[in-house]
Specification:
Blueprint (H helix, E strand, L loop, with lengths): L10 H10 L6 E4 L7 H8 L7 E8 L5 E8 L2 E3 L1 H9 L3 E3 L2 H8 L17 E4 L8 E4 L5 E5 L10 E4 L3 E3 L6
Parallel strand pairs: 3-6, 6-9
Antiparallel strand pairs: 1-8, 2-3, 2-5, 4-10, 7-8
Length: about 170
């Protein structure tokens, strides 16, 4: 594990470090919460959006609803109406911010794939795994995790899915 040199006690950081324990090398990166959204973060701190991966909670509609965490590159768009619907065989959509908070405990802009409920499926778009390193949300709008993409394979219920997302330029309106 590597981490930044900040010595300020932080409950969010402590929870993140606990969720990352035993998962291999990573770096914690402190950021201004106002700059936590991917485009702002990358512009402000000089990261390539192609190395930034977002964790997005999706819901399969019906009774009962089903949920999954999807990890996709910032340069891609989750194929919720194709790939997600096909996986569940039911209408699917992005979870509302309130649902995301209830399931993950995280605000939009800080959702992390680390420390999620053990029974929540984690679907990783195959394009994420082609990156040498990725920048992920850190569980709050104040932290990011920088790590090799292979860290995602240490997660329970993680599955790499081909075609989960499409490059943004190929998205049809």
């Amino acid at each position: 594990m590597t981490a930044d040199s900040s010595a300020v006690p932080d409950a969010d950081r402590a929870a993140l470090e606990a969720a990352l324990a035993g998962r291999g090398e990573y770096e914690l990166f402190a950021c201004d919460p106002a700059l936590a959204d991917t485009a702002s973060f990358c512009a402000a701190y000089g990261f390539d959006p192609a190395d930034s991966a977002n964790t997005i909670i999706v819901v399969g509609k019906g009774t009962p609803p089903v949920y999954a965490a999807c990890v996709v590159l910032a340069t891609h768009r989750l194929a919720v109406n194709q790939a997600i619907k096909a996986r569940w065989g039911r209408k699917s959509s992005f979870a509302a911010p309130e649902e995301t908070k209830a399931i993950t405990g995280h605000e939009i802009g800080g959702v992390t794939v680390f420390g999620l409920p053990a029974d929540l499926p984690v679907w990783v778009d195959a394009a994420v795994m082609t990156r040498e390193r990725i920048v992920l949300g850190g569980g709050s709008r104040s932290w990011k995790v920088i790590a090799p993409a292979s860290i995602l394979l240490t997660l329970p219920n993680a599955e790499v899915v081909e075609g989960l997302a499409n490059p943004a330029f190929a998205r049809e309106g």
